[in-house]
Amino acid sequence: MRRLFRRAPLVGVVIPAWGVEDYLDDCVRSLLAQTHQRWEAVVVDDGATDRTGEIADEWARRDSRIRVVHSVNGGLGAARNLGVSHVRGDYLAFLDSDDVLPPTAYADLVAALEESGSDFATGSIVRWEGDALVEPPWMRRLHRPLRGARVEDRPEILGDVFAWNKVWRRSAWDAAGLSWPEGVRYEDQPTTTRAFLGQRFDVLEEVVYRWRIREGSITQSRASSVRDLADRWATKRMSLAAVRAHGSTEVEAVFVDRVLAGDLWRYFLLVPGCTPEWWRLLRSGVLELWGRRSLVHSGLPPVHRLAGWLVEQDRRADVVALMEWVSTLDGPAPRVQDVATGAWRLSVPHAVLDETTVAPEALALRDHEV
């Protein structure tokens, strides 16, 4: 009988907010619509210069579960850490102020944790593509259900780098000494990597987050800037150091090939028109992080494995030509089969790249790519 009348656990929600006057209302409304009603939220006004702080204060006047902390601008990591110091609860969640939650998000995540006793739970996401909400196929693949898992059970889960599709048991967060890096962008990955490596977790197939990718948001910036790329390398470096300290060769191999390399194609697309300084930084990062194991072994698509090999070889002009050619294609890059061996490889026009100067493994296709 006592269990029937036990109070629902309290979820503490940290909402960092900067420049979101057009989005904060929708974000808070999605929190109010949660079927798990026992929560309290701290909105951290990160020195916003628009009406963000005023809107947050108005919500706090309307609902006693919402409090506002006004701060000087310190960036997303600092705002989250400040919010953690102010919020209470049995569980801890992070909600970006330009996104929204499905109604059952916290109910689903908390229910899993109450049953499993795990340290945190993670669910799938959808993102806006135009007016449609689309679940990325790689997120669907990663979120096949698991309970009480360790990273060795599914090393590729390290690719789920987001802060906001998860709920932590607050005692586990504090015991692990988790926090978000400050002063750099892409701060999610080092912390979520540490959590997956050191804690037990539940994986839910349910969609628990609706992600809005917008130009100029607190987490979005121009990837072509030197500072942006330096921040990307810094957080990848932190994450790789944590994986290596974990000590599993299998987890490290999956992380380096499938997770750490996963977004490099975005940077290769920017090589045409990049500055010499940006190119040098791109190449130095590639050599530092994949120098032990060339990107030809990574999980990148074939043409981007080739681009990675060319970056390693300092062949900038060839990367430019390759990326400009790829931009003209309507589908995958052409393939050709070797008559003698039956092996398949990329087929790049000679005017774009002299294939005789390229290592065969940089052109090779895998069975599932044919």
From TrEMBL:
Domain Glycosyltransferase 2-like, residue spans: 13-146
Protein name: Glycosyltransferase 2-like domain-containing protein
PANTHER family in the record: GLYCOSYLTRANSFERASE, UDP-GLCNAC:BETAGAL BETA-1,3-N-ACETYLGLUCOSAMINYLTRANSFERASE-LIKE PROTEIN 1
SUPFAM superfamilies, alphabetized: Nucleotide-diphospho-sugar transferases
